[in-house]
Amino acid sequence: MQRVLVVGVTGAGKSTLARDLGRRLGLRYLEMDALYFAGPGWAVNERLVEDVAGLAEGPRWVVDSLGYPEVRDLLWERADTVVWLDYPRRVVMPRVLRRSLRRTVTREELFGGNRETWRDWLSREHPAWWAWSQFTTRRREIERRLRDPRFAPLHAVRLGRPRDAAAWLASL
């Protein structure tokens, strides 16, 4: 396990697991949203493909994302392991709601200096709405990729519950 993607739906805990996995295995942790969002107003990094390609060339890393469409194949082709947090909606939705509520109330600074606001909750782009609406689509995308012959060399770890993830991480 040298180049690892931690994938799952919004709110599954990808960043937390990827960060912990990086510490445990001495892998460089790459936070995809921090690479994607470049500035205020949720501005997108115009150099995303170049930045991710350069980082993915590194020998040892863990990324907390399926990958944005622009870099998805690049990451999957360079990874050697995919860890899928395949949690049910009943687990994911309370997590994403608590996280967004905390971020909104505390005005926590996020990627590119952005913050979640009360107004954002009305947008289909808000993490809570996104997690709900993209749940099935995201799961199908991950399943499709894991069956794709291009990615057959990848070692896949599918974890269905948070306690499974904790036990797997502790076993490393």
Q: Could you characterize the architecture of this molecule?
A:
There is one protein chain. The protein is an alpha/beta fold and 172 residues long. It has a single domain, classed as Rossmann fold (3-Layer(aba) Sandwich). It has a five-stranded parallel β-sheet with strand order 2-5-1-6-7, with helices on both faces. It has a two-stranded antiparallel ribbon with strand order 3-4. Helix 5 crosses helix 6. The protein is globular. The chain starts with a strand and ends with a helix. The model has no long low-confidence stretch (mean pLDDT 95).
User: Main sheet?
Assistant: 5 strands, parallel
Rg, Cα atoms, Å: 16 Å
Alpha carbon gap, first and last residue: 10 Å
Low-confidence segments: none
| Count of distinct structural domains | 1
Q: Based on DSSP secondary structure assignment, what is the total number of beta strands?
A: 7
Per the CATH scheme, the topology name is: Rossmann fold
Mean pLDDT, rounded to whole units?
95
Q: Estimate the global geometry from the Cα principal axes.
A: globular
Strand order of the largest sheet: 2-5-1-6-7
Number of helices: 7
Which band does the percent of strand residues land in?
15-25%
Order of helices and strands: EHEHEEHEHEHHEH
The top level CATH class name:
Alpha Beta
Structural class: alpha/beta
CATH architecture annotation name: 3-Layer(aba) Sandwich
The CATH homologous superfamily: P-loop containing nucleotide triphosphate hydrolases
Helix content: 40-55%
